[in-house]
Amino acid sequence: MTIIDLRSDTVTQPTPAMREAMAKANVGDDVYGEDSTVNQLQELAAEILGKDAGLFLPSGTMGNLISVLAHCGRGDEVILGNQAHIFRYEAGGISALGGVHSHQIPNQKNGTLLLEDIEEAIRWDDPHEPVTRLIALENTQNKCGGIVLSQDYIDQVGDFAKERGLALHLDGARLFNAAAASTSSAQELASPFDSLTFCLSKGLSAPVGSVLCGSRDFIKKAHRLRKQLGGGMRQAGILAAAGIVALEEMVDRLGEDHLRARKLAKGLASVPGLILDEGTPYTNMIFMSLAEHIEYSGEKIEAHLREKYGIRVGLTGPRSFRLVLHYWINDEDVEKTIDAFKKLLG
Ligand SMILES: *Cc1c(COP(=O)(O)O)cnc(C)c1O
Fold this sequence. Notes:
Elements: E1 4-5, H1 16-24, H2 36-49, E2 53-57, H3 60-71, E3 77-81, H4 85-88, H5 93-98, E4 101-105, H6 115-121, E5 132-138, H7 151-163, E6 167-171, H8 175-180, H9 186-190, E7 195-199, E8 210-214, H10 216-228, H11 237-250, H12 254-269, E9 274-276, E10 285-290, H13 298-309, E11 311-312, E12 314-317, E13 320-324, H14 331-345
Parallel strand pairs: 1-11, 3-4, 3-5, 5-6, 6-7
Antiparallel strand pairs: 2-8, 7-8, 9-10, 10-13, 12-13
Bound molecules: pyridoxal-5'-phosphate.
């Protein structure tokens, strides 16, 4: 049985072109700065995003952690959304390892943080209070349905952060999905931010890694923090080679995943037992839940799809699901998935 894995875009396997580039990669000791393939990836990423420099990292979580630690000292505060990946899914690393205090404010339905909420969260210059240093945004905003933050909005937050003397970080794990769904380029969407990370290993299909971009001084600081956290890698060009293919060949096709997400959503919306979240899909993710009259649990349905049809879906609650489109899901898989849900619930 072929598996149709819709749980996440992290399940993507490297492409044949990536495996070939990995086998042929020139490598060296990257801790000495001597891996030419890593250097090439870092320069390419920085150039695409209009920043001075880049740093190759084993994960996006490490990229966010390093960024928060570079911008904030112990006891300092970062303002971020209560649906931010940094807040929800990074094991509290910024506080556990950096002693950084997080100040969560609500993400609106459209993924944004209200400027007035940010304003109110900024601390007074008073010895009772922590020092506010950083605002962090996420684009696309995963827990808000993979929605895109608009250029207009991020420019406003950028101006605001500058006025208030705060640094601005972007968790851009899916920044290229945001660009594919927006009239702005990835570089434009990156422009208001002092630092940003993006994942090579999600929709871009590379096996491992993220790149952190920012000013030369920032990346110098980040380089030392990467070493402190045990993230200095040696002949990492083997991995970076796949990242270069990801940036050169996989960015321009992300719109296809968004198109397939809409096709799949349209089909699923016609299944009587399913209720799609309002607005879904914004990019490559579909969020939906079971109608009240369906007596099966989400777990039962997940298991049935997996065992009987080889279809894997993500459970996001007792009766709700997330389905994510990516390079390894084709039109036939979309049809098969719609048919399977129809057979189960229709
Ligand atoms: C995946 C993801 C990350 C980083 O995840 P890693 O698995 O550590 O690479 C960060 N932010 C968001 C929004 C993500 O989806």
